[in-house]
Structures are given as structure tokens and as C-alpha cells.
Specification:
The structure holds 2 protein chains of 2 kinds. Chain A has a domain at 79-143 and 188-320: MetI-like fold. In chain A, helix 4 runs parallel beside helix 8 and helix 6 (143-154) packs across helix 8 (190-217). Chain A has helices spanning 2-7, 11-45, 72-77, 86-122, 128-140, 143-154, 160-169, 190-217, 220-228, 233-244, 246-261, 265-270, 282-292, 296-320, and strands at residues 184-185, 188-189. By secondary structure, chain A is mainly α. Chain A has a two-stranded antiparallel ribbon. By secondary structure, chain B is an alpha/beta fold. Chain B has 2 domains: 60-174 and 339-413, Periplasmic binding protein-like II (D-Maltodextrin-Binding Protein, domain 2); 179-336 and 418-457, Periplasmic binding protein-like II (D-Maltodextrin-Binding Protein, domain 2, 3-Layer(aba) Sandwich). In chain B, helix 2 (70-86) links the parallel strand 1 and strand 2 (90-97). Classes of the chains: A mainly alpha, B alpha/beta. At the A-B interface, helix 2 and helix 13 of A face helix 1, helix 3, helix 4, strand 10 and helix 19 of B.
Chain lengths: 327, 459
């Protein structure tokens, strides 16, 4: 039926449709196979005790030595007793660390990048590209390189940070910024702060560029009208610029939050989740259990939980940060 | 309109499903082939020592996968060239991967059937791949389990025997414990001399280590005795349990809430209390033992002799003054646990298994070739014959670092058949014992955590 209808396409409209079909279908197939299938596969694995090393059943290795366990992984996640298995306890730590990291990254990133964007926009037109480039350059640096560089900065013996402290204090300073579990500030591990600083350094260029573009899109007449009404610089920022930037702030907050949830490379290279699991984010937990310890079923179940967490927080964020101003 | 769109979606989904089924079909057809070689060893060999049938003279390409280690790969290359000279019809192609990538590639390629013919494997991994029917059994006419146990040391061959079947041949007796590397130049500078006669007790070692330790303004800038890295902690912990007369793995049951394990932890803590190591500053994450020793941030380090060729080119001055000294031990003999060692296996999917096994035999069972590989890689021989007589003289003559290890090899024990050894060693034992040494938890909590986590992983 469908094929007959296909061949009945005639005229310009039909030609356009055929063109669209021929160009879109390969992409849809590509995305379907490389994105949709792994996604569905990931969901399916969450219900199995699966390891790629085991032969398993005849259909995609499921069943047999990779048995169906239903909701067992998810039930295990709800075991909050101190005697819970290690993978469950480290999962709980992973959730806490990831939420804490994202909770710190989003406001800090916005607090740095938004004023910085306003600042860059306020300098002379010729100077702006220099600042934009300077702040955007770390984004282009490979994450592993950034992690190694910051690892050297924080190194207890050879690190730049301790060397500066030694110069300032005039005596030997050997602080293990990334590896001492007893080092905390307000109960938050210093190692997590150390990773946070490296992450912000690398990541803020993105939001900066988005904010600069948003600032440039605010019509001049609104600012001119405000000036005629006698507002000062602070009022201009809080009463005019900020409300008009709300859609952009909403977008960057969600993107930053998602990106913060997905932090992996910096953590893996800088601390590998240590000390004492204090920096073990969820993605590192997933990676470890999927690829190092071959418990792909458990890792897939954690991925599903992570997906739901990001989805929920994104929906909540978009509701609370909904723009009330349009221009 | 909706109907038309719906049909489009149907077509797309149909194609997707077909693509998926096509992929599944490909895998399913490989499965029966994968089970075939398992039948081979059931034939009782008439002549166990007989070499496998010589490969036919047709052109054969043999793919070999190894992990990236310069000395290992140069040694493999030299033996491959020698083999190809003897077998001009065989072309051996090496593909190497960095360590982490190699592990992940094996994990995904083996089930997918895209791996090479010959796979370099660490003995402790072999059974988990054999369990998935991914590895071929060693042909009985090449080597039987009984013969292998007679030819090779227990720890290295232990990793290659799974459920009474042999899945590969070891080349290395991987040893991370039993002797420690001493920077003799630093030791002379600070007057640490006990190591020269050999440490008779832990007190002797601690005395040397104390002299080698440097503490400035309360911060340790050089550690006297480093064992607080993943392999050091794990091998020392389990070796000490065995030396104190305990067992941690018996009849498939893992147990460390024992007095022997408590004693092991107490001894390890003593080094921290004596201030010859700061486990917060010296561990895998901050100062890995190899880097720390050759950067002269550590005076005495627990690490295997493979580290010498690995660092030799970059740190020739330190290598010159480095010397292995046997570690003191508890009980009546220097029992230590070892994690099998590197060796070669053959993929069950290989189309040229006979040539693959012939090459494996050439590299691992020919005593001269095996010795050549050990000398080039700085690894201890898995083949026990290569630790005796002229082979021993040659080993010690060319690589004097081996001497103290050769004396203790007979006391080595295979660490045990864990379903996931890396998990037990690196994810459980290392972080838990390190936490204890750093003062973050009690010995009781540490042992309980280790026991619970390992038991959980064995279910």
C-alpha cells in the first residue's frame, strides 16, 4: 500500500518530498542505529545481570549466564543500610557527589560568566575579541590535558600551588589537595573544590560566549529608554539586562547542569574518584562498573537513574527559571 | 496527513529492525564455531610432548594483540622475526593498545569476535574470558594441564587453568612482593647500611627506612619505605596473611575477618606509625611508586623487577644505583602471593589456530626463546627450568636484579581464582587498606568491608 503510494508521488511537491526522504532517511537510520539502539540497549541491560565477557543466551547474549533480574538493581539502590554492598554504597556516594558538584557548578558558573560577559561587552569594541578568545581558549583544550595540567598544579611535592604557598609562608608546605580525605571546607572535600576550579576554568568559555551573544541581542532602545528614565548602572543590569537575559540564563543553567552531571574525564585523571570516594561522580561509577569490573547490568541501571535525575532537574529548572519577559 | 507520516515512520522502523536483526544474525552464526575447539582436548594425547602438526606452507597472516610496553613489544617483535624466518609463509602483524584501552578492547572485541588470533593476556584475566567461551583451549598434543603444572611455576600457570582446562601459556612470573628496590646511593648518603647484609627483621628495614625518610616542617618530602600503592598494599596484605599462617580464600569462600589479617594490618600500620611512609602523600594517585622511586622521592620501594627496563632509558643514573633486597618475613618461610603473569592465549574465533598455537609454543615453551623474552622485558621466568643451571646464571649475569627473586620463587602462591581479580585488588583491598593506613577507619571496619565487598563480587 505504502509502496504504491510512494510511486504515485508526482510533481514538484512530490519531488521535494522524495528529496527530503532521501536526505533524511540515512540520517534517521544513522541516528537510530548509533543513538537509539544503544539507548534502548542500555535500558534493556538495566534489567539483566550482564557482562559482555560471559557468553549468555543466543539473543544478544541476554539470558543464560547473563540472567534477567527484573528490578533487582533498582531495589538494591534503595538499600541504605551501612552493610549494603560496596557497589550500592559507592552508588549512593556517587549520587551525593554528583548532586553536590552540579549544585556548586551551576550558580558559580553563572555568577562568574554573566558579570564577565557584561564586563567584556563594556570594554572598547576592538578589545572585545581579545578577551573573548582568551576566555574561550580553555574550552578548546582537551579535557585530559587540562586534568593533567591541574594535576601538576595541585601536586603535593612538585605542584605550583604549594610552591606559591611555600614562597608566601616561608616554610615547607606539602598539602595533598587532591588526595587527603581529611581536608574539607564546610564539610565539602577540598579535592572536590580542586576539581571544581579546574572544571570552571575550562567550561566557563561556553556560557561566556552565549551570554555575550544574548547581551548583543538586547535592543538598544530599551537601554536608551531606561537611561532617559534616569536608571543607574546597577539598576540597568538588574531591572533591564537580567530580566531580558532570563531565557538565556535558563538555557545556560540547564546546559551547565547537564554538563556538570556528565563530568568524568577531569575526575578520572585527577583523582580517579578518591580520596575515599570523595570525588567519585556517577559517571565514573558507571564507567568503573561497566568497563573495569564488567557489571554492565548494574552500570546500565545507574545510567537510567542518572538519566531520570537529569530529566527531572531540567524540567524543574525550566519551570522555575521560566522567562517572564519577552522582547 | 497523519496516516502518511505514520507509514513513513513504519518504514523507517522496519529498516531499523531489519538492520538490527541482520546484526544479531551475524553474531548467532558465530556461536557454534566458537564452541567447536572446546572438544579438542577431550582426545587423550598419545604423545604429550609431541609438537602440534606443522602449519601448511600456504600464506598465513597471524594477528597478535599486545598492550603497549616498549620492552615487551620489542621482545615479541624479535621472536616474531625469528619465527617468520623459520616459517616464511607466516606474516605476523602486531597491534598494540595502551593498558586501559587494551582491557576495554578485549572486553568488547572478544564477545563481538573481532579480536586478533593471538592475544597477550594477564593470567588473572584468563578465566573470565574463558568462561565466555572466547578463548581456545591449549591443544592437548601441545601441552596438558599436568605437564604445564610440572613445567611452569604454580602462580603463573594457576591463572591459565580454569575448571581443570588450560587456556594459554604464561611467560612471566609476575612478582610484586618478596624483595624491595633500594636506592643504594641515597642509602649510603644517610648511612643506612642494614640492607647490605640483608634485612634480618622488620626492625632492620625500619631502621634503614627511617634514615632515608626526609621530613621538612612536618611534611614528608621523601618516604623511607613505600608499599602504599595498589599492588604493594594488596600483595603485602595477602602475603602477610599467608605468612602468619592464615588463609583468605578457601573452597571458594573469601574470609579476612581473621586474627592473621589483623596482624597483617597491624604490621603495615607500624610503618606509618614509625613515620617511614605517609600514605596520604604516597599512594597511586599522588606519587605512583615507580615514578616516586626513580624521582628519588622514595628510598625503598616494594615493586617488581619489570620496573627496571621500563624506567631504564629515562633514569639511567638511578637504575645504576638500584638494588633488590629480600624483604623480611613472618613465620618459617617467605611465602608470597603472586598474580600469575603475562602470557599468550589464542582466540576461539581464530581461523588459523594451528599456526597461532605453534607461535605461542615457539615463544613460551622453547626455553631459549622464553629466556630471551624474560631478559628483554625484565620479567621473571614462568618456565621453572629457566631459573636453574646455566639459564639461571645467564639470567643473573645479564640481569642481576633477578637474584634475590630467584631464591624466593618456590615460595610463591597463586593469589586465587577470583571472578574479578582487579576488582578485589584495586577497587576493594587497595582503597580499604589505604583508608585504614590514613587513619580514616579501624582495622575491624577495614577487614569487614573487604570481606563483604569481595564476597559480594563472588556471588
Amino acid at each position: 500500500m505504502f509502496v504504491r503510494r510512494w510511486f504515485r508521488f508526482r510533481g514538484v511537491d512530490a519531488a521535494q518530498k522524495r528529496f527530503i526522504a532521501f536526505t533524511v532517511i540515512p540520517l534517521v537510520l544513522y541516528m537510530g542505529f548509533w543513538t537509539l539502539f544503544p539507548l534502548l540497549w542500555g535500558f534493556a541491560l538495566a534489567f539483566f545481570r550482564y557482562s559482555a565477557r560471559r557468553a549468555g543466551g543466543p539473543f544478544l547474549g541476554l539470558g543464560g549466564d547473563n540472567p534477567f533480574v527484573g528490578l533487582a538493581h533498582f531495589q538494591a539502590m534503595l538499600n541504605f543500610s551501612p552493610d549494603a554492598p560496596l557497589h550500592v554504597r559507592t552508588f549512593h556516594i556517587g549520587v551525593k557527589v554528583t548532586l553536590l558538584f552540579a549544585a556548586m557548578v551551576v550558580p558559580l558558573n553563572l555568577m562568574i560568566t554573566l558579570p564577565l560577559a557584561v564586563l567584556i561587552e563594556s570594554v572598547h569594541r576592538r578589545m572585545r575579541p581579545i578577551f573573548r578568545t582568551a576566555f574561550f581558549l580553555p574550552v578548546l583544550a582537551p579535557s585530559v590535558g587540562v586534568a593533567i595540567m591541574w594535576g601538576y598544579i595541585y601536586h603535593p611535592q612538585r605542584g605550583l600551588l604549594n610552591a606559591i604557598l611555600r614562597k608566601i609562608l616561608g616554610h615547607m608546605v606539602v598539602i595533598n589537595w587532591l588526595g587527603d580525605p581529611k581536608l574539607t571546607i564546610w564539610g565539602i572535600p577540598v579535592a572536590l573544590f580542586a576539581i571544581l576550579i579546574a572544571y570552571l576554568w575550562q567550561d566557563m568559555g561556553y556560557n561566556l560566549v552565549i551570554f555575550i551573544a544574548a547581551l548583543q541581542s538586547i535592543p538598544d532602545y530599551l537601554r536608551d529608554a531606561a537611561r532617559i528614565d534616569g536608571v543607574n548602572g546597577w539598576q540597568m543590569f538588574t531591572k533591564i539586562t537580567l530580566p531580558l537575559l532570563m531565557p538565556t540564563i535558563q538555557l545556560t543553567a540547564i546546559l551547565t547542569m547537564i554538563s556538570a552531571f556528565q563530568i568524568f574525564d577531569l575526575v578520572q585523571v585527577m583523582t580517579d574518584g578518591g580520596p575515599k570516594y570523595q570525588t567519585q561522580v556517577l559517571l565514573l561509577h558507571i564507567y568503573n562498573y561497566a568497563f573495569r569490573f564488567q557489571r554492565m547490568g548494574w552500570a546500565a541501571a545507574v545510567s537510567v537513574v542518572m538519566f531520570l535525575m537529569i530529566l527531572t532537574i531540567s524540567l524543574v529548572q525550566s519551570r522555575f527559571l521560566k522567562a517572564r519577559w519577552e522582547y | 496527513m497523519f496516516g502518511k507520516r505514520s507509514r513513513w515512520y513504519t518504514l523507517i522502523l522496519l529498516i531499523l529492525v531489519l538492520a538490527l536483526l541482520a546484526a544479531c544474525g551475524g553474531k548467532a552464526t558465530q556461536a557454534p564455531a566458537a564452541t567447536q575447539p572446546a572438544e579438542q582436548p577431550t582426545k587423550a594425547p598419545e604423545k604429550p610432548t609431541q609438537a602440534p602438526e606443522k602449519p601448511k606452507a600456504e600464506k598465513v597472516t597471524l594477528r597478535v594483540w599486545t598492550h603497549q610496553n616498549e620492552s615487551f613489544n620489542n621482545a615479541y617483535k624479535a621472536l616474531a622475526d625469528k619465527y617468520m624466518a623459520e616459517h616464511p609463509n607466516v606474516d605476523i602483524q602486531f597491534e598494540t593498545f595502551d593498558y586501559d584501552t587494551y582491557i576495554q578492547t578485549l572486553q568488547t572485541a572478544l564477545p563481538a569476535g573481532t579480536e586478533a588470533d593471538v592475544l597477550q593476556m594477564f593470567g588473572s584475566w584468563v578465566c573470565s574470558y574463558a568462561e565466555g567461551n572466547n578463548l581456545a583451549e591449549v591443544p592437548a598434543d601441545m601441552l596438558t594441564v599436568d605437564k604445564a603444572q610440572g613445567m611452569f611455576f604454580g602462580p603463573p600457570i594457576g591463572g591459565y587453568i580454569c575448571d581443570g582446562k588450560l587456556y594459554g601459556v604464561p611467560q612471566e612470573f609476575n612478582i610484586e612482593y618478596g624483595a624491595a628496590l633500594v636506592n643504594t646511593k641515597l642509602a649510603q648518603e644517610v648511612g643506612a647500611t642494614n640492607y647490605e647484609k640483608g634485612w634480618g627483621s622488620w626492625d632492620d628495614l625500619i631502621e634503614d627506612a627511617k634514615k632515608l625518610t626526609v621530613i621538612e616542617d612536618g611534611a614528608m618530602t621523601r618516604a623511607g619505605f613505600m608499599f602504599t600503592h595498589a599492588d604493594g598494599i594488596s600483595t603485602m596484605f595477602y602475603s602477610l596473611i599467608r605468612q602468619y599462617g592464615g588463609q583468605y580464600l578457601q573452597d571458594g569462600v573469601f574470609k579476612v575477618t581473621t586474627p592473621e589479617a589483623e596482624k597483617a594490618l597491624a604490621l603495615m600500620k607500624r610503618f606509618v606509625d614509625e613515620k617511614v611512609i605517609d600514605p596520604v602523600l604516597f599512594n597511586d594517585e599522588e606519587n605512583w611508586v615507580g615514578d616516586a622511586f626513580f624521582d628519588q622521592l622514595v628510598g625503598i620501594a616494594v615493586i617488581g623487577p619489570w620496573v627496571i627496563p621500563e624506567y631504564g632509558a629515562d633514569y639511567p643514573d638511578v637504575v645504576k644505583v638500584a638494588k633488590y633486597v629480600k624483604l623480611p618475613y613472618e613465620g618459617d618461610k617467605p611465602t608470597f602471593v603472586a598474580a600469575s603473569g603475562w602470557g599468550l592465549t589464542v582466540s576461539n574465533n581464530s581461523k588459523v589456530k594451528d599456526v597461532a598455537w605453534d607461535f605461542v609454543q615457539f615463544v613460551t615453551m622453547n626455553a631459549d626463546n622464553a629466556l630471551q623474552w624474560n631478559l628483554a622485558t625484565g620479567t621473571l621466568p614462568a618456565l621453572s627450568a629457566n631459573t636453574e643451571g646455566t639459564a639461571k646464571e645467564k639470567l643473573v649475569g645479564e640481569f642481576p636484579y633477578f637474584e634475590p627473586f630467584l631464591e624466593i620463587l618456590p615460595y610463591g602462591e597463586y593469589e586465587g581464582a577470583f571472578p574479578d581479580r582487579d576488582f578485589v585488588w584495586y577497587e576493594v583491598t587497595y582503597p580499604e587498606v589505604l583508608n585504614f593506613l590514613q587513619g580514616n577507619q579501624t582495622a575491624e571496619e577495614t577487614l569487614k568491608n573487604i570481606e563483604q565487598a569481595v564476597q559480594e563480587s563472588m556471588k
